[in-house]
């Protein structure tokens, strides 16, 4: 961490405390409160971490006011247009865009780790066929901690590297298997002659009874969706992976914890919830009814795919996703997709409404993604597994950064306690 450039003065009960302030290369300065409890005997209080920096990172930067997302300094719209997912994976994992030789080597290492241990097939059989694919992914990814013991010694940089490659490589295979299992079709093995996105599409949609040709339009759109979801600073699931990993736990088990957190509708589960909401709205004339519900304090309903903890402007990923939705549906010859029409009308109506404008609520990454995924043939239950697949490289990059920090400490927050004060046990006959 850079040297402190200034101090913040805190006065409690007439006593002054000077706290070091650090500046990053971008974004808000931070006040270092690590010694506050020792000096002043008080904690800070920030349940949703709205004003708390949990770590010092160099991977991703978000400027919420400007609607900017940078991965190692490169803006997401340029990466989505000019790069591709495995190159973005390399950038996130190693900090720089790869040379041609570095990219070829990285893609070869990922490609040659896409199969999973054959015995893991039996794990799927223990689930009901109607299990949500996210329930399967949490279980199967967690089970990787029992199959790859040669890449779980996190103190060994080489084993950390192998675990990273294995996670990036195997997530599409596991996600596709979860899908196949849910529809009662046989698993399709990965192929080394296909690129990452094409391999995933084939593992999802190929059947033994027919040849499967990957549609290049869908493959490019799939790869772009992977890129748009790759990493996003210290979001809830990434923070989950960091906290779980801070105890030195098995990396695969920590990724499973991240998958569990991502599943929630307030986070990665919003893409499924958003499409289901758009389908429930059905036609533009019902939009006012749903806008009213979203504004009603007594109604827990929220516009799914809208709002963000950090973005108080357009989510740059939503902009790219919206363009991609138009392109993909047009190229697929899907005219006048009613769900896309409702989405566009809903966005227009919400952004014109003072409630959303005043609270700076804009479409986020989940607002348009489901429309593309549905057009590609995925059921809504596969939307969040695809988010999890894409975000694995972000979780792993953040994990690697944290684990390799010699200052690493186990994460152990404190609390504001409002429970019972000390009292003696009462025997049951006296209650
Ligand atoms: C992701 O963190 C990340 O980076 C996440 C993510 C990533 O890539 O990892 O970007 C992915 O999770 C995107 C977000 C997906 N979730 C949704 O689309 C679900 C709907 N959105 C919300 O639930 C909400 O906006 C959150 C959870 C995304 C953010 O919530 P915050 O920051 O805790 O804000 P809040 O709940 O305190 O809301 C502030 C105000 C409240 O009104 P007041 O109490 O101040 O009067 O805005 C209102 C909220 O009621 N509000 C909404 C709303 N979102 C916030 N009102 C209606 N509809 C919404 N969608």
UniProtKB/TrEMBL annotation:
* Pathway stated in the Swiss-Prot or TrEMBL entry: Carbohydrate metabolism; tricarboxylic acid cycle; isocitrate from oxaloacetate: step 1/2
Q: Which Pfam families match?
A: Citrate_synt (PF00285)
SUPFAM superfamilies linked: Citrate synthase
One biological process GO term for this chain? tricarboxylic acid cycle
The organism's superkingdom is given as: Bacteria
Which catalytic residues are annotated? 308, 366
Reactions it catalyzes: oxaloacetate + acetyl-CoA + H2O = citrate + CoA + H(+)
On whether Cytoplasm is a keyword of this UniProt record, the answer is no
Q: Locate the coiled-coil region(s) and give their ranges.
A: none
Keywords, alphabetical: Transferase, Tricarboxylic acid cycle
GO terms of molecular function: citrate synthase activity
A GO CC term assigned to this protein in UniProt: cytoplasm
NCBIfam families, per this entry?
cit_synth_I, PRK05614.1
Return the similarity comment. Answer: Belongs to the citrate synthase family.
Query: Which PANTHER family has this protein been placed in?
Result: CITRATE SYNTHASE
What protein am I looking at?
Citrate synthase
What is the scientific name of the source organism? Roseovarius pacificus
């Amino acid at each position: 961490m850079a040297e402190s450039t200034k101090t913040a003065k805190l006065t409690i009960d007439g006593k002054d405390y000077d706290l070091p302030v650090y500046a990053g290369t971008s974004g808000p300065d931070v006040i270092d409160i690590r010694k506050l409890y020792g000096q002043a005997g008080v904690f800070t209080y920030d349940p949703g971490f709205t004003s708390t920096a949990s770590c010092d990172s160099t991977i991703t930067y978000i400027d919420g006011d400007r609607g900017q997302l940078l991965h190692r300094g490169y803006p997401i719209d340029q990466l989505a247009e000019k790069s591709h997912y495995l190159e973005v994976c390399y950038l996130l994992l190693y900090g720089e865009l790869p040379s041609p030789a570095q990219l070829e080597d990285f893609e070869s290492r990922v490609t040659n780790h896409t199969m999973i241990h054959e015995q893991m097939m039996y794990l799927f059989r223990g689930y009901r066929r109607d299990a949500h694919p996210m329930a399967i992914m949490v279980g199967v990814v967690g089970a990787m901690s029992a199959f790859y013991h040669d890449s779980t010694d996190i103190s060994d940089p080489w084993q950390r590297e192998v675990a990273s490659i294995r996670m990036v490589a195997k997530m599409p295979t596991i996600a596709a298997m979860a899908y196949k299992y849910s529809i009662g079709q046989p698993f399709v093995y990965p192929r080394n002659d296909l690129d990452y996105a094409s391999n995933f599409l084939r593992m999802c949609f190929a059947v033994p009874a027919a040849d499967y040709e990957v549609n290049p339009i869908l493959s490019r759109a799939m790869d772009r969706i992977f890129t748009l979801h790759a990493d996003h600073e210290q979001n809830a699931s990434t923070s989950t992976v960091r906290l779980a990993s801070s105890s030195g736990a098995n990396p695969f088990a920590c990724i499973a914890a991240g998958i569990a957190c991502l599943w929630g509708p307030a986070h990665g589960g919003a893409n499924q919830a958003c499409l289901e909401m758009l389908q429930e709205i059905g036609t533009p004339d019902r939009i006012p009814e749903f806008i009213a519900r979203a504004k009603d304090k007594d109604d827990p309903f929220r516009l799914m795919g809208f709002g963000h903890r950090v973005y108080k402007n357009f989510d740059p990923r939503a902009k790219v996703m919206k363009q991609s939705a138009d392109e993909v549906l047009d190229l697929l010859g899907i005219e006048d997709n009613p769900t896309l029409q409702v989405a566009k009308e809903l966005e227009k109506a919400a952004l014109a409404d003072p409630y959303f404008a005043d609270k700076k609520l804009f479409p986020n990454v989940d607002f348009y993604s489901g429309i593309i995924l549905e057009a590609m043939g995925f059921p809504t239950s596969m939307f969040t597994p695809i988010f999890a697949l894409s975000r694995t490289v972000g979780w792993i990059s953040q994990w690697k950064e944290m684990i390799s920090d010699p200052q690493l400490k186990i994460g152990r927050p404190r609390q504001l306690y409002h429970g019972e004060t000390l009292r003696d046990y009462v025997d049951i006959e006296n209650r």
